[in-house]
Design goal:
0% strand; 145 residues
Length: 145
């Protein structure tokens, strides 16, 4: 999974935050971004909440992309009714919305898988060794005096 090891730049964070603000509002987007930034630090071990937040963003944006792809496919260009050089603004708007949603999905997916892998590695390192008990000795027989 080397493609998910690409570092996020500050521009990527800004684009992601703007997209999240547009969909979820400023407060929720700020909370999600806080989890993302904490999980994406080099030595940080992502916790469950940050990975779950990224998972939910990825899942919701995937559904949104699917719906927008269906809409774009359904709207075939009607070249017979349009004069040459005339732009269908609704169709162009749907394409722009699709590109924006796809960008959010790919960014959140990349962050999700990277955080998930980091969390798995951290959990696998923390698996405790089974406790080994000493063998029980037979009780000493006391002799009556």
């Amino acid at each position: 999974m080397k493609r998910f090891d690409i570092d996020m730049t500050e521009t990527d964070y800004t684009i992601l935050q703007k997209a999240l603000e547009k969909r979820y509002g400023e407060a929720v987007a700020e909370d999600i971004m806080k989890h993302i930034r904490l999980a994406d630090q080099p030595n940080a071990e992502p916790n469950y909440c940050s990975v779950k937040a990224l998972s939910e963003v990825t899942e919701k944006s995937r559904d949104e992309v699917r719906e927008k792809v269906k809409r774009v496919k359904r709207d075939k260009p009607k070249s017979e009714t349009r004069a040459s050089g005339v732009v269908d603004f609704d169709r162009e708007k749907r394409h722009a919305d699709l590109e924006e949603a796809l960008d959010l999905y790919l960014r959140s997916q990349r962050l999700y898988y990277r955080s998930y892998q980091k969390m798995r590695r951290a959990l696998m390192d923390e698996v405790p060794e089974p406790k080994r008990y000493k063998k029980r000795k037979e009780p000493e027989v006391l002799l009556a005096a």
